[in-house]
């Protein structure tokens, strides 16, 4: 398996997660290593990357980026169309 620099996010998936979020605070995984995509599970601790805080005021549907390269993170902006699929080790 190839090493990825600790300041570069992994591509967790080449499509967003679309879900309805209730009001509250969420932590979006920015490093791509979480097993709880699209949310943080603490896996970023081995990297220099921090999760992104997402505050939801009213219940709404969101499309959260899983390629981790969106220009509008944590939301999907279509950048995943330019990403390579996740490769097997
Ligand atoms: S999943 Fe769509 S821009 Fe990352």
Mean pLDDT: 91
Q: Could you tell me how far the N terminus lies from the C terminus, measured between alpha carbons in angstroms? A: 5 Å
Number of helices: 0
Hetero groups bound? FE2/S2 (inorganic) cluster
Whole-number tally of structural domains: 1
H/E order of the elements?
EEEE
Tally the beta strands: 4
Question: Could you explain the architecture of this structure?
Answer:
The chain is an all-beta fold and 89 residues long. It has one domain. It has no helices and four strands. It has strands at residues 17-21, 24-28, 52-56, 60-64. It has a two-stranded antiparallel sheet with strand order 1-4. A two-stranded antiparallel sheet has the order 2-3. The model has no long low-confidence stretch (mean pLDDT 91). Bound molecules: FE2/S2 (inorganic) cluster. The site of FE2/S2 (inorganic) cluster (FES) has 12 residues, from loops.
Which terms would index this structure?
single chain, 89 residues, mainly beta, two-stranded antiparallel sheet, two-stranded antiparallel ribbon, binds FE2/S2 (inorganic) cluster
Helices and strands in order:
Blueprint: E1 17-21, E2 24-28, E3 52-56, E4 60-64
Antiparallel strand pairs: 1-4, 2-3
The protein binds FE2/S2 (inorganic) cluster.
